[in-house]
Amino acid sequence: MATETSAEPTPVQLAASLRDTVVGWRRHLHMHPELSFHEEQTAQFVYDTLAGFGELVLTRPTKTSVVARLAGLHPGPVLALRADMDALPILEKNDVEYASRTPGVMHACGHDGHTAMLLGAAKILAAHREWLHGEVRFFFQHAEEVFPGGAQQMVDAGVMDGVDIVIGAHLWAPLATGKVGVRTGALMASPDVFRLLVKGAGGHAAAPQETVDSIAVAAQIVTNLQHIVSRNVDPIDNAVLSVTKFIAGTADNVIPERAELVGTIRTFDVALRDRIPRLMERIVAGITRAHGASYELTFDRGYRPVVNDEQVTERLRRVVTRTLGADALVETRPSMGGEDFSAFQQRAPGSFFFIGARNEARGIRYPHHHERFNVDEEALERGVALFVAATRDYLSGPAAR
Prior knowledge:
The structure is a single chain. An eight-stranded mixed β-sheet has the order 1-2-4-3-5-16-6-15, sandwiched between helices. A four-stranded antiparallel β-sheet has the order 10-12-8-13, with helices on one face. A two-stranded antiparallel sheet has the order 7-14. By secondary structure, it is α/β, with parallel strands linked by helices. The chain folds into two domains: 275 residues, Aminopeptidase (3-Layer(aba) Sandwich), CATH 3.40.630; 111 residues, 2-Layer Sandwich (Alpha-Beta Plaits). It is elongated, with a radius of gyration of 24 Å. The chain is 33% helix and 26% strand. It has ten helices and 16 strands.
């Protein structure tokens, strides 16, 4: 990692001094995962750990979230740093000493690492208030994985009041350790959900002419929905429409009256996000009418797209280069995954970035939400250094702004 020439320790050096502590925090959290909206022990662990740093003003904006505020010794803007804390309903199959001790629950997305990195940054910054022209707020957020999400609840509780800039990071399995992915503009998609009930007329499978086969009608709908992305969306635009659940039938000799489809729609563009449901409705209405069936189609809008502010992101690029070296910075590809960090971006300009955590040589190569997902713990040190360096940069006083 690159270092700066200075009499005082650099963010990289400070992060290195906490390496074992941060790894220990991460492993503790990994062993004790909690699902979205149930992060009671996690939030208490974070609160108690922060209380030991001194200088921080701690609050609990919701039952399972924590906010720490650190006022600098000089006036200036307010910067918010965010980490999420919830785990997933997955049975872990990693053979490691710190594997989950809660059957069927696992940190399979890196949120344990996010929390540990932000704790490390808070500890360092609490010891160096003299660096700060303004205030830094540390958001330890619950329930990123489950809509409506913890971010919006925290925003509704007022945590973003007065915030000028917000940044967040995600340990990223597709990216090798040592790399940091940054992108201006759309980074992550809106994860909307649709539910379709096709209603026909059931009957004996030996007499299909006496029925309206809900399975046959629903199967045609599945096929034709694929035409939306391939034939109704501009190839330059990004969209995903996936049917992920198809439920119908109870016996081999019964044509069921009903078939249920569930799936997701992923987009970056607001206009396209509104247009795809209308296209779906047209297809579903046409197919069901042609076969004498009826339908019920509903949509649940998920998180907004994560769209990174140009000025904040450009500054973040410089922070990454100065802190870790030019080779660390990569222009990351956007992801069709969703992230409720977007709720914070509705209240202040911000940037969300990826910290590489993949290490093929160590067998750390499984994707997010996989039963063998893990992160290269060397990435944690880089995350701490970047949070500290970004805070020093954003809150470095009028001369630097």
